[in-house]
Amino acid sequence: MNAAVLRRSLIVGRLDARLAAVAVFVLGFGRILIGDRLGIVCPLLATTGIPCPLCGSTTSVTATLRFDLAGAFAANPAGIGVVAAALWVLASRSKSDIALPYIVLGVTLLAMWVFELSRFGWL
Fold it and tell me: Cβ atoms within 10 A of the Cβ of 1, count?
């Protein structure tokens, strides 16, 4: 990747990415094993009634790990992408860091927020 792109990217170390990927599976499967009793509530939603872009992500990841893709998509489509990315990170043999362009992150968060605002009836 060229230097200009790297300057406009979030650089994630390979070890950090692998630890995050393992956390996705440990927490996701842990939630499956103990059930939905955690009652994780979004602080923004609880205080303002407005959902954040990540609302539904925990439910979406858990549904994806249960192979309930319709339920995962309904909760937050990004959860499917998180599980796919975690699988890719763990399966990849690359030793190089991961560059995530800020524009991609921004557009993704905006799309997730539009989805959540629509899902909660704000749009």
Answer: 10
2 assigned to some structural domain: no
The pLDDT > 70 percentage for the chain reads: 92
For residue 39, being part of any structural domain is answered with yes
With contact defined as beta carbons under 8 Å apart, do 60 and 84 qualify?
Answer: no
Structural domain for 17, as ranges: 11-119
- The answer to whether residue 34 sits within a structural domain is yes
CA 22 to chain centre: 13
The pTM of the full predicted model, rounded to 2 decimals, is 0.86
> 7-23 burial string, b = 16+ CB within 10 Å, else e?
eebeeeeeeebeeebee
